[in-house]
Amino acid sequence: MKALIRKVSRLCAGLLLIGVVSQVQVQQVTAQQLAAAPDVSSNMTVLGSPFKKASYARNVWDMQLFDGKIYLGHGNSSNYAPSPNAGPVPIYYWDPAQNKFSVQDVTYTNPATGRVTTNVYVMDEQIDNFKVLNGELYIPGNDSRVPGWAYGNFYRLNGDHWDQYMNIPGGIHVYDMEYYQGKLYAALGAIEGPLVYVSSDHGNSWSKFTSVSKYGIMRTYNLFKLGDALYASSATAGKTQGIANEKGYMASIRQNSSGAIQTSKLTFTSTQLFPGLSWVVNKNEPSVPGVSGQPWLKLLRTTPVNDRLLYIPGIIYNDHQAIPQGLFSAGADFQNVRKEQLPNTAVLPIDILERGEKVYVLGYVKEATGQYTNYVYSKNTGSFPSTGQGWSEVFHFQRDTFARSFEELNGDFYFGLGSYADVIPQSTGTILKLNAGSY
């Protein structure tokens, strides 16, 4: 349901009246916001699902457009039911030109012997995210099956196949990768703690660069650019009643005017990063195995938009997964952090897609068990520096579960259905398409 739009006028006293004038933020109303967004439920085309794993492992964790194909993340790296450690995981994509799902080979070249091995899957339990870095497509190795805990994997698209690299020391979990000032960086969850590794030779070799301060869950989950810096982020303890400590840490990596790389350790609270979010702790709260009584959050879908960072805080859930909690943005150096104001405040944002002059957000509302309304909102990127408002609903649709990820190509939208560990419908992993003319 759309939020009510109110016109607010400033009350002014006469020249002789002395008083206090309350200032109320005025929301600008556009014709697009006032118009009813279409329900496109009957216009959705079911493309099917290529996944062969058990239901929970069919969650479409990420969708990534590259070279006209839409790549699909799936699997499950959690050690806990359902579908624990569901790898190895094939690399599927939807080919709009051929109107079909396809799979790509993965090759590994042993650097010692030169022997080439070809498989049809990655040697990891889950494809959690795809990254387009310096014009190339990567997969961070979310949870290594081979070679094990000694090294972590990453994968890079090479024409019609993927090259596997098993060479990031201690990279049990390679959660994220980023390209900054001519070098590749990798965010690790390692035995030593939340590490960041760097490669100066296109990923052929890696060295330890820095770590994020150890506190709570010792994993580096994110690498993202904001302003002129690269940031590495771990988990942040949520603000809770009865628990005062809500610390979280980041490391900033910045090249100075002389070309040298400088790093700084930064401390944040969830109040700073996610203003307005708080919890009452009880035994029914989602929790991380081994950490009780306090919600821990990580950043999801970190997306630079017009000199700001747009992101979703997620409560860490089922080991490596998360439950989204809102939509926020921050300016350079994490100044001017604000909550982005979606028209329907009940919507939980879950994915972000930037398209030049527009940014789209996918979210959902659980109406009842097996009944979800999925929403797509948009906002002009030009308005990002000045306001957290200006979001407009593009369309919505009903389904028996929520859409976890989405992509767009030539005005057509694609959606990957997901689920949580408690209720897992058979539709998990289904790919939907909405043609441009339907909204």
Q: How would you summarize this macromolecular structure in one to three sentences?
A:
This protein is an all-beta fold and 439 residues long. 2% of the residues lie in helices and 45% in strands. The protein has helices spanning 31-34, 270-273; strands spanning 45-48, 63-66, 69-72, 91-95, 100-109, 116-119, 131-133, 136-140, 151-158, 161-169, 173-180, 183-190, 193-199, 207-211, 222-226, 229-237, 247-255, 261-269, 296-305, 308-317, 321-324, 328-330, 338-339, 348-355, 358-368, 371-380, 392-399, 403-409, 412-417, 431-434.
Would you give an account of this structure?
This protein is mainly β. The protein has one domain: YVTN repeat-like/Quinoprotein amine dehydrogenase (Methylamine Dehydrogenase, Chain H). The protein is 2% helix and 45% strand. The protein has two helices and 30 strands. Strands 2, 3, 4, 5, 6, 7, 8, 9 and 10 form a nine-stranded mixed β-sheet that branches. It starts with 30 loop residues before the first helix and ends in a 5-residue tail after the last strand. The N terminus is likely disordered. It comes from Paenibacillus albidus. Keywords: Signal. InterPro entries: Sialidase_sf. This is DUF4185 domain-containing protein.
